[in-house]
Specification:
homodimer; 201 residues; Helicase, Ruva Protein, domain 3; Dna Topoisomerase Vi A Subunit, Chain: A, domain 2; 2 domains; two-stranded antiparallel sheet; 7 helices; 41% helix; globular; zinc (chains A, B); zinc-finger (chains A, B)
Chain lengths: 201, 201
């Protein structure tokens, strides 16, 4: 905006909202105006909710999930199958699997994947606690839900090696055609994997 | 999400963020995860910025704009032409005109338009202060930037009548083809208005 139409406090709010994924500078302005308009019913509660979460947020010492309690909501949920641990790179992946209602299991969040180029080594990932959890017994299967990038695949191999001596069954997600996806938009690697893993009808 | 993957504080944050324009339930989750990840550099400053704006926000007693000071940033800007007042329905319209760098003038925010159906009458709009401002002298032109809906046009007529005895020149925005717009996407009213207001090349 060429000239200021509001004080610096408001400009700063626009700038911070514009750093959220999905909000550009223009929608950040719209969001700010909306907040100003709904200042009692939205701006005030949102400010409090942010302070509330900020003050309580902790990393779960069992699984590496981020929550307002430790152990986290997932780890303390007794309706989940305790014998299956789904290993994910990020909390976002855990949320995505839960949104899909894909499996009723426990999770383990690595906090990233191995990436020599970015300087992420085994010590930077939440691996020691995973070995401890599996070693403590009661775990029948570890599902590696780590994506299909080179770094993720490297990480999957590394975790598999790490868990080998515990004797636990280690599996990975299937590769294939995304449900609803069109063949001619898919890369060669996915198509080859889908052919190799074809199933009988 | 079928089961809770995080405590109620986090779910509440997602829900509140989802009420911002431009953010649906899914992008609110993404935004929440981003905030949790950047809790020192984004979540904390955003919480403070919201509290800061919330604590300072006031309606400008001169023009009806909303800002952290009264009179507002626009009214106290001495680089603006003081003899021209642009009348807008909402603060968002003021921001839009400023973003377009359309005019270097002062503003007057009505806080809505007349709408018998929604029970919005003249007493609900910031009209008395407009008459006072114009009556105080020094104003050469009042530009009604009120949109082209029936309610907005009714409001424009009402304001014109209201200002008639002050003798001030009252103008409205031109109707016509939006810049970059295609003719076959425009409604008949706009096309007729554009023909009537055609200009010589």
């Amino acid at each position: 905006m060429p000239r200021a139409v509001a004080g610096p406090e408001i400009e700063r709010l626009i700038q911070l909202l514009g750093r959220l994924p999905g909000l550009g500078p223009r929608s950040a302005r719209r969001a700010t105006l909306h907040l100003i308009k709904k200042r009692e019913t939205l701006m005030a509660p949102l400010g409090l909710a942010l302070q509330d979460v900020l003050g309580k947020i902790v990393e779960c010492q069992v699984c590496g999930n981020v929550d307002v309690r430790d152990p986290c909501t997932v780890c303390t949920d007794h309706h989940r199958e305790p014998g299956v641990i789904v290993v994910v790179a990020e909390v976002a992946d855990l949320w995505a699997l839960e949104r899909a209602n894909a499996i009723n299991a426990k999770y383990h969040v690595l906090g990233g994947v191995l990436s020599p180029l970015d300087g992420v080594g085994p010590d930077d990932l939440n691996l020691t606690k995973l070995v401890t959890r599996v070693g403590a017994g009661g775990v029948e299967e570890v599902i590696l839900a780590l994506g299909a990038t080179v770094d993720a695949q490297t990480t999957a191999h590394y975790v598999t090696d790490l868990l080998r001596e515990t004797g636990v069954k280690v599996t990975r997600l299937a590769h294939g055609v995304p449900v609803g996806g069109e063949l001619d938009h898919l890369d060669e690697g996915t198509l080859s994997a889908a052919i190799r893993a074809r199933t009988v009808l």
